[in-house]
Design a protein that fits this description.
By secondary structure, the protein is an all-alpha fold. About 60% of the residues lie in helices and about 0% in strands. The chain is elongated.
Length: about 110
């Protein structure tokens, strides 16, 4: 059976998926770490613990994510937070009192 050639539309779709996954992942990670440098992340989490507890209680933050944010031993490391969760934290800025984007204006 001969291999089917991709249409231009299919090629463009695959390119957009590649860009979203490969480039977008790095972009979210870099943006989050610029807003909350890994050296400041622990202090930010400590200052907003009650708000995060409320989000955990409401089921917005899972137990697994909570354990990464507030580990029983040691402290939270930016590298251990998944990119999808960093994106969700950036999005939460508009949905809760936790101000992850405190000194920046973000237009989505």
């Amino acid at each position: 059976m001969a291999a089917k050639l991709l249409t231009t539309e299919e090629k463009n779709y695959l390119r957009s998926i590649y860009l979203t996954f490969m480039i977008g992942t790095d972009a979210v990670r870099i943006y989050f770490d610029q807003l909350h440098p890994p050296t400041d992340l622990v202090a930010h989490l400590a200052n907003n613990k009650s708000a995060f507890e409320s989000l955990k209680k409401d089921g917005i933050i899972s137990k697994a994510v909570w354990e990464k944010l507030y580990p029983k031993r040691g402290e939270c490391k930016s590298l251990k937070i998944k990119v999808s969760q960093k994106y969700n934290f950036l999005k939460l800025n508009y949905e809760s009192e936790i101000n992850f984007v405190s000194h920046y204006t973000v237009n989505w």
